[in-house]
Each structure stands twice: as C-alpha cells, then as structure tokens.
What does this fold into?
Amino acid sequence: MLDWLGAGLRESLAMLWATFWPLVLGFSLSGLVQSMVPRDGLRGSLGSTTPASTTRAAFLGIVSSSCSYAASAMARAFFARGASFSNALVFMVASTNLVIELGLVLYFLLGWQFVVAQFAGGIVMVIGLALLTSRYFGAKREEELRARVHHDVPDEQHPSLPARARLRDPRYYREGARYTLGDVTMLRKELVIGFVVAGFLSVHVPNAWWSHVFISGHGFWGVLENAVVAPLVAVISFVCSVGNIPLGAALWVHGVAFGGVISFVFADLVTLPLLLIYRRFYGAANAFRLFMLLWPLMSLAGVLVDITFKATRLLPTVRHSAVLGGHFPLGATLVLNCLAAIVALVVWVFAHRTDSDLGATDPVCGMHVDTSAPAATRDLEGVTYYFCSLRCAEKFDGGQGHAPGSKDSDASDDAVDPVCAMRVHTKDALQALGPDGVTYYFCSPGCRTTFLKGSSTLPGSATNERGTTA
It folds into this structure.
C-alpha cells in the first residue's frame, strides 16, 4: 500500500517540480497584466454582439483571472450590467482558456502544439458563441435572465486610471502582486487536486482501461468520440482552471486523441461545481441549456483543431509528457525553480505591503478583487466588503453577521486575520480593538502592528485616495 501511494505521490511531485517555475511566471505575469490594464472602459461597450465587442470581451477575459469560479461570477456581473449574454460567455471562455499561465503550463507539460491548438480552439469557441448564443437562447429568454441576475449585482463603483498612468505608479505593481497571490489562493485546491490525481492516473491506471472510455484506431470517428466524451469525463473530475492541465497530460499519454485532450482542457467550464453555480445563477433549465451550448462547441473545437493539425502535419506523433516518469531533472530546471522561488517570495512581500489604496481582498477566499466592478458587495457596520463571486458573498452572509476578523459566535471559534486573510483561532490569537469598536484577531505580531498603524483596510473593503473607507 505504501509503495502504491509513494509511486503516485512521487509522480505528482515530479510534475509539480517540472512546472513550478512556469506556474510562478504565469501567475506573476497574469497578476501584473490584470493590474496594469484598465477594464472599466472596456466593459461599457459589450452591450451588442458585434465583431468589435466580441473581441473586446475576449481581450477582457485574457487580462483577467484564470479562476473558473471567478470567471463565471464576473461573466454574470457583466451580463447584469448590460453586456450581451454572448459577450459575457466569450469573456468567461477567454478568462479560463486563453490566459498566460495556462499556455505556459501546457507548453512545459505537453509542448508548443498544444499551446497553439488551445488558442486556435479558443478562437473557434469565441466565434461559435458569438454566432449561436443569441439564437439559441433568444431575446426574450436573455432579458428574463438579465432580470433574474440584475438585483444582486452591484453597479460599477468608480473609474480607473489609464494604462500609461498605471505603469508609472508603483502602487499598481503591488496591486499586481495582490492579484497573483489572490489567484493562487483561489486555485490552490484545484492545482493540488489536479497534480495528485494526474500523478496517480498516470502511474496506476493501465492503458487498457482508457480504451474502454476513449476508442482509438478509427480515424475521424475515433477523434470525434474522444472529443465528445472528454468533456463528460471533465464534468465528474471536479478539477477546473489550470488544475486540469496535468489531467489532460495524463489522458494524452494514455492514448486519448489530440482533439480529445483539447476538448477536455476546454471543459473546465462544465465541471460539476461550475454546473451547480450556473444553476444558482440562471436556474436549472437555463444551466442545462448553457451546458448543451458549451459541450458541442468544446467538442467541435477539439475536432477542428485535430483535423487542421493533421492536415498541416503539426499533429504530435510521440505520446509523451515532459514530466511524466517520476523524474526530478536538475540543471536548468533547478536554477529556474530557485529563481521562481525568489520571485514568489518577492510577490508575497509586495502583496502583503498595505500602503496601497487600490483594490480589496475577498474576506472569504482571499482573492484580490477589482473594486471598480466587483462580482458582489456587502455592507456591514458601515464598511463595504467586496467579493470575487456570489458564492463567497453568501458564505459571508452565513457568518452570523460579524465582520471578518472579529470573533465569531460559531462553535469553531475562529476568525480571519484582517491584514492577510488567514484563518486564526481566537482563543490563541493576538487581538486588537479596531476603529469601529470591533475586536480583530491576528496570525502574527507583524499583522497586528500593521493593522494598528492604520495603513491597512478591513478585509474585503477598499479605501479611496483620501484613505477613508469606500
């Protein structure tokens, strides 16, 4: 039993070792891009589905977080604020499948062909959504959906600085670090599950088993079957965002067609947790309709990419992954991982510097939130809290009405550090009385000192340029 567990975990750790520096680089660049590119101006031109507005929606998704949960929440928020349903879905697809970190991890796990295929397939899905969404849902249903979601989505809060001004302002570099740390915080479970499951699948599941699910050796019909079935496998995998890339690598090594792997990677938007979120957002019937729109488009994208790559002789001929095999390469990988660890430390330090009046931290999940257009807000004891998704806002609502960081009446007797958003036990934690008369609890003397200096905002809240609470 120990040998069985050890082999699977070794493979998982080997995959993480080989992709650590691409992950750090990808998330860091993504956070910087999210900070530097103003998005509120782009949001205002998504009301009609035109080639220009579809392109803007895709670009807005590319410069946003790669988290599937946050993407679905922001797509709903954009739709409620006036964007067409088509453009909202285009944003969601681009945010999870056309982002920097995904491309880097794909490259180092599977090679450049998969990166090109992913972006080409993404374009197919964007075009398909632009052409089909309004026809599939209809104008009447779309307006009913908008009325359903409008009441719980806050309006855009305030305009932001242009990109040129941001590049000269050091606050936005710290803001980029907060986006990076927030994305990693939100996706850490997905990444861990993805690597662990992929490691065990690649070591302990024989090729013969996969042949019962994905057929091979039947030319086009085999590719079609793989591309259709792969999203259904993703539905029950529970792993979305960047975390499903290691699983895609395991499928490729075990004989799944090129187009099937691409369809599987796209299917991070139809995993069971996301389908349940769609049901809460739009209702069960519309969630099913959305699944029936996305699933064929994912499969179509995979099939078209497979056919195109085969016709142009770009299709990979060797089924291998750069990291499967349980090896821990040294040399350049060791050097790059050491540099990545330094970058990660710098990002962490920058993210925990609290002398910025930009953005806010979701007090539930720790993700950084663009306060100009949050997915949800809550007002409590004179403080506005910002959330990355409706799910986090509802969890906040269930917290007995206490501000995060204050003592909760729940039997678990723990709270959230208002500086770093870490969970702390109130019985053992340092504490201080806040300016609002609430007792706050801290994980360390450093966080308590920072809070007492008054340079921090309450978790999830944001301050304006004068330092008052938004």
Summary: The beta strands are 360-361, 368-369, 376-380, 383-387, 414-416, 423-425, 430-433, 439-442. Residues 2-36 form the longest helix (35 residues).
